């Protein structure tokens, strides 16, 4: 499926995927300051641009997710955990990167900072009702099924 992508800067990298069967495509930091890097203090968030804008096909949006290696090894993840880039958004894709570790981390130009997945959007019509169907689980939540 084709997703139109526009480089907002000639130093921006197009998304890539690590293998032919990978579900997501890596997106890269496009850091244009003199140092070519951004430092993220412990437990803080910095917005990092990708230098790209995209136009997903009609009926789809782009989800922005953490890269498992980056979050588990470096403590860096999208601050909002999952980002949603709507079908009609045409601005730069920016990842708010949060540092979960107790030490300062550095993100350099060209580092993979997140991964994106094309996802189908479903319109919902909300129907207000007096009662919902009964289920065995009912209103139990937050561990009520016995699994942590």
Which key features would you list for this structure?
148 residues; mainly beta; 4-stranded antiparallel beta sheet; 1 helix; 11 strands
Give your account of this protein's structure.
With 148 residues, this protein is mostly beta strands. It has one helix at 68-74, and strands at 4-7, 25-28, 37-40, 45-49, 52-55, 60-65, 76-78, 83-85, 94-99, 105-108, 112-120. The strands form 4 sheets. It has a 4-stranded antiparallel β-sheet, with no helix packed on it. A 3-stranded antiparallel β-sheet has the order 4-9-7. The model has no long low-confidence stretch (mean pLDDT 94).
Structural class: mainly beta
Task: Report the order of strands and helices.
Answer: EEEEEEHEEEEE
Quaternary structure of the protein: single chain
Shape by Cα distribution: globular
Quantity of strands, as a count: 11
**Mean pLDDT across every amino acid position:** 94
The biggest beta sheet reads: 4 strands, antiparallel
What is the alpha-carbon Rg in Å? Answer: 19 Å
Beta-strand content bin? 35-45%
Summarize the entry for a quick read.
This protein has one helix at residues 68-74, and strands spanning 4-7, 25-28, 37-40, 45-49, 52-55, 60-65, 76-78, 83-85, 94-99, 105-108, 112-120. By secondary structure, it is mainly β.
SSE order and pairing:
Elements: E1 4-7, E2 25-28, E3 37-40, E4 45-49, E5 52-55, E6 60-65, H1 68-74, E7 76-78, E8 83-85, E9 94-99, E10 105-108, E11 112-120
Antiparallel strand pairs: 1-5, 2-11, 3-10, 4-9, 6-8, 6-11, 7-9
């Amino acid at each position: 499926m084709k997703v139109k992508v526009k480089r907002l800067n000639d130093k921006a990298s197009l998304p890539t995927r690590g293998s032919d069967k990978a579900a997501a495509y890596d997106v890269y930091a496009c850091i244009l300051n003199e140092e070519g890097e951004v430092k993220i203090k412990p437990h803080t968030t910095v917005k990092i641009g990708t230098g790209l804008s995209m136009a997903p096909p009609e009926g789809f949006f782009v989800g922005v997710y953490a890269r498992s290696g980056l979050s588990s090894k470096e403590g860096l993840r999208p601050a909002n955990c999952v980002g949603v880039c709507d079908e009609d958004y045409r601005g730069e894709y920016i990842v708010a990167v949060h540092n979960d570790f107790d030490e300062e981390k550095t993100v350099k130009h060209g580092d993979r900072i997140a991964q994106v997945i094309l996802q189908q959007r479903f319109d919902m019509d909300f129907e207000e009702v007096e009662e919902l169907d009964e289920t065995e689980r009912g209103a139990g939540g937050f561990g009520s099924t016995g699994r942590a």
